[in-house]
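step 3/5: co-fold with adenosine-5'-triphosphate
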Amino acid sequence: MLNNTKIMVRNLNLFYGEFQALKDINIDIKENKITALIGPSGCGKSTFLRTLNRMNDLIDHVRINGQILLDGLDIYDSQCDLITLRRNVGMVFQKPNPFPKTVYENIAYGPKIHGIKEKSTLDEIVEKSLRGAALWDEVKDRLDKPALGLSGGQQQRLCIARCLAVEPDVILMDEPTSALDPISTLKIENLLEELKKDYTIVIVTHNMQQAGRVSDETAFFLNGEIIEMNLTDSIFSKPKDKRTKDYITGRFG
Ligand SMILES: Nc1ncnc2c1ncn2[C@@H]1O[C@H](COP(=O)(O)OP(=O)(O)OP(=O)(O)O)[C@@H](O)[C@H]1O
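step 4/5: write tokens
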């Protein structure tokens, strides 16, 4: 696809009942880049993020039209296999949500569901995923301990490792550091820089500095619309729309 576009969104509208939460969204999300979604509370960032792996399908009264092409294929097509889609497009949430199982089992769970049974293969996946999430050194001696005994920052990296274990192409992150302390936040921001070599990342953040630090491109949402999308440096240094400027300079939101 042109310009290394991984996800192409065209004329996307989403309604919760009568309420239109997304209005004619058109953006291209580039492969191996980090795209930040910013904007005031309630403007539709999380809703949009969830359209990218069809998590909104789980909500009643949602109506969606338009197109989202992942590697050129329409994810809302009736032929699209949801299990494969959610494997290809993983998600990390705001609050770390490990399963109440061991560290090892948290990572091995997904691969097992996808049919991998051999212990040595699972061991490899667990190590590789934990290394990929920059957590291996901290947990390699406690793989059989409960994941809920880890710190919040470790739990969030565990959730990232769990996501990596099924080998997605795209990782969606909904305010992944908002529940974490500054040091854990920095670890995850550094990790994102590493992960983008192998994955396409879309991140919702309320933290302007974070968007500026980690992302390559930024989309500014307001009232369900994308007001402006551009290279992050351009959005922050010379926003084209006054509303973008007002938001990033802290005048509202
Ligand atoms: N399940 C739902 N049913 C009805 N309305 C919803 C639902 N989820 C979200 N909305 C509404 O859709 C709009 C967009 O919400 P969304 O959570 O996507 O915004 P957001 O930009 O992510 O906000 P925040 O930054 O506060 O998380 C809001 O007006 C919200 O109230």
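step 5/5: annotate
Residues 16, 19, 21, 39, 41-47, 59 surround adenosine-5'-triphosphate (CB under 6 Å).
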